[in-house]
Amino acid sequence: MWHKALMALRHDKIPQALALGERDGGLSLMLAEHGCSVVCSDLRGPTERARELHAAHDRAGSVTYESIDTLSIPKPDNSFDAVVFKSMIGALSTKERQAQAIREMHRVLKPGGMLLFAENLHGTALHGWLRKRFVAWDAYWRYLDVNTDRDLFKPFLRLDDATTGFLANLGRSEGQRDLIARFDGLIMPIVPKSMRTIWFGVAIKG
User: Fold this and answer.
1) Per residue in 54-64, pLDDT tens?
2) Distance between CA 198 and CA 181 in Å, rounded?
3) What pLDDT digit, counting tens, does each position of 91-126 carry?
4) Which of 34, 44, 61, 86 could crosslink 118 through cysteines, CB 3.0-4.6 Å?
5) How far apart are CA 13 and CA 35, in angstroms?
6) CA–CA gap between residue 203 and residue 146 (Å, rounded)
7) How would you class 175 by CB atoms within 10 Å of its CB: exposed for 0-12, middle for 13-18, buried for 19 or more?
8) Which residues does residue 37 pair with via DSSP β-bridges, in sequence order?
9) Which residues pair with 84 in a beta bridge?
10) How does DSSP classify residue 12?
11) Domain definitions of the chain by residue range
12) Does domain 2-123+145-163+198-204 have CATH number 3.100.10.10?
């Protein structure tokens, strides 16, 4: 879904993109590889690992680095062709703050621009128990509900979205999560939407 959306960006000029909550720069690399000029940002600034990642893939010239609070993005209206975040707005703790962040993303997008997102869902009671036991930030994280939180995206003209994930986010390392994600891919057709743990999509600004 994301790849198809990014391929549709107008390339008569270099698309401008903003990646939020980007500590180690993975989403910024994805945007740069799709031909974008990217602002790679995190609340306290991206890590040195992000810079090393972009340099290793010969994309350093396409990326700049900033400290950005998603609740008050210091950019003019209609600045970007694409904005992207992953597993970030849960840390804002309340629906009101999450809605404010998404309004800010909508504001800085150009008309016809796209917000690419992937965020954690509640999942099952087992997921909740395991998070309380093993996830340090669980006490303040607000997990989304794919039904009751759709109104977060009401500023947008269109929302194309889907759900996935069941076990992968329980992995304790990136390698474990990648391996378990392959199993998730096999069982996803039989996992009810109410038990899934990731909500992702593309929201289009009118």
Assistant:
1) 999 999 999 99
2) 12
3) 999 999 999 999 999 999 999 999 999 999 987 666
4) 86
5) 10
6) 14
7) exposed
8) 16
9) 19, 116
10) S
11) 2-123+145-163+198-204
12) no
